[in-house]
Amino acid sequence: MTKFLAVAIVGYLLGSLPFGWLVARLHGVNIFEVGSKNPGATNVRRALGARAGNLVFVLDALKGAVATGWPMAVRPLSVNLLTYCLISLVAALLGHSFSCFTGFKGGKGVATGTGGLLVLLPGSTVVAAVVWVAAFYGTGYVSLASILAAVALPLAAFFIFGCPKPLLVAAVLISVFVIGRHRSNIARLLNGTEHKFEKKKDGAG
């Protein structure tokens, strides 16, 4: 139990690193006061341009990958290794969404989850990414693309790749978490009030 707790704490702290907030502050912007007030890559991209938004996405994905993979570097392969990796990834998602460094405010976990799942479920994550790209360019809604990608992840893990049960359960739980973080977007999509993505020139803000 002590080891599980230690892994969870490390994962949470890695996930809590507020890259969206930090990148925006470097541009003189408090990301919690502009746009959707979300520190994720999409809002940073809207406020500051593609370069800043892409940087935040990469950094958030990287912290998810590190949070998921670091137990592999410090512990020999064992039955419990996958459990440690999953605990750290879930903790990182919680840290990203409820960061202790920003008053327990945060993003929706798409980039962080993507980074972690690339370590554990690379094939399913690629399928989900393809669904995201198709949905985004087909509709212009980032939120809808993220929701559909979250749905595609466990479906691909089950029907295409036949993943082991622990990974399949993890894919379902992460999918539910990401969709739950988009509940306000879902309401706006149903009401027809969700905003489509609009590009902002680099350096804006």
Give the percentage of residues in beta strands: under 5%
Overall average pLDDT: 91
Please provide the ordered H/E string of secondary-structure elements.
HHHHHHHHHH
Low-confidence stretches: none
Distance between the termini: 47 Å
- Shape designation: globular
In total, how many domains does the architecture comprise?
1
Helix and strand content put the structural class at mainly alpha
Largest sheet: none
Number of strands: 0
Number of helices: 10
Helical content stands at over 70%
Radius of gyration: 17 Å
Describe the structure.
By secondary structure, the protein is an all-alpha fold. It has one domain. 72% of the residues lie in helices and 0% in strands. The chain has 10 helices and no strands. The N and C termini lie far apart (47 Å).
How would you briefly describe this protein structure?
With 205 residues, this protein is mostly helical.
Features:
single chain; 205 residues; mainly alpha; 10 helices; 72% helix; 0% strand
Helix-strand layout with pairing:
Blueprint lengths: L1 H15 L2 H8 L14 H8 L1 H25 L6 H17 L12 H11 L1 H18 L2 H19 L4 H17 L1 H9 L14
